[in-house]
Amino acid sequence: MKFGPVPLEQAEGAVLAHSVALTKGRLRKGRVLSAQDVADLHAAGADSVIVARLEPGDLGENPAAAALAAAVVSAQSGLTVTEPFTGRVNLLAAGPGVVQLDVAALEAINRIDPMITIATVPAFQQMAAGGMVATIKIISYAVTSDALAQAIAAAGPNGAIALAAPVLKTASLIISEIPGGAGEKGRQAIEDRLTALGVQLLDVVTVPHTRADLTAALRVAPGDLVLILTGSATSDPYDVAPSALRHAGGQVARFGMPVDPGNLLFLGDLAGRPVIGLPGCARAPALNGADWVLSRVICGVPVSADDIAGMGVGGLLKEIPTRPQPRRKPPKD
């Protein structure tokens, strides 16, 4: 592609690089100049104009962006692809879900040519319908077909960007209570999280904070997913709630996570259904570590102990003002 000023008599068919005022109205940048456009520029007193001229082997910004979008989006992506405009294509969530990225492939694409770019939200971010997952932008007015072919090949045969939709449809919530405790405070925040992912909360039961009562509640809890919110913080793998899960016939796959707020989460299984022991911060609507695990589990994205261990980098989240023990003591007056 050639870029720079040309005499008006050479401008027809070139791409206007910058918007230009006419006697009446304006010609917008990115416009392919017609004979009438050139005449209008001449009438406005111009004798040259800055343009981009495609050369053999070049592909314009819009078809290039569309071709790359088709390559990075998998066949069952859960994404909506917008029409290209000024070299940009946006990938939008077709419904709620969790973003899945082939990070290595995307990084490879962004290394091929600085004019070919893909920007995304972080991997595993929870999305609502219509949310922007990624934007593809061809910065220049054209790129070489060779560079675009390399970018398309780097995307791989199965694409590099997708949205995992919810696969669990129902859940139950068990709340344990201690004298003077929070009771059912937080129930609405938890239900709102489930609703955002299309999950129906079938049952909420409150029981005393004992292993026996929690065990009994776990054994009869309905739904595809079981959540536990304890009245007293779970501070050990053999504390009341994790022990109750084991006594009910389940197992604990991971206790504790390197995300703050959210350290006191545990993840397990009961008769093939996931069980999540929620940290106390889940009573508030603010983002916490439980959100990262809950959204993946609901969307069928495996969450192993190693996965949770890897959440620590970037896992220092915004402090919650209502936390009983904030990270920093307030300054003395």
Task: Kindly describe this structure.
The structure is a single chain. With 333 residues, the protein is an alpha+beta fold. The chain folds into two domains: 58-164, Aldehyde Oxidoreductase, domain 3; 170-312, 3-Layer(aba) Sandwich (Molybdenum Cofactor Biosythetic Enzyme, Chain A), CATH 3.40.980.10. Helix content is 25%, strand content 28%. It is built from nine helices and 20 strands. The strands form six sheets. The chain has a six-stranded mixed sheet, with helices on both faces. Helix 2 (61-72) packs parallel to helix 4.
Compile the SSE list and pairings.
Elements: E1 2-7, E2 15-16, E3 20-21, E4 26-27, H1 35-43, E5 48-53, E6 58-60, H2 61-72, E7 79-81, E8 88-93, E9 97-101, H3 103-112, E10 116-120, E11 126-127, E12 132-138, E13 142-144, H4 145-154, E14 161-164, E15 170-177, H5 187-196, E16 200-208, H6 211-220, E17 225-229, H7 240-247, E18 251-255, E19 266-270, E20 273-278, H8 289-298, H9 305-309
Parallel strand pairs: 15-16, 15-17, 17-20
Antiparallel strand pairs: 1-5, 2-5, 3-4, 6-13, 7-8, 8-12, 9-11, 9-14, 10-12, 18-19, 19-20
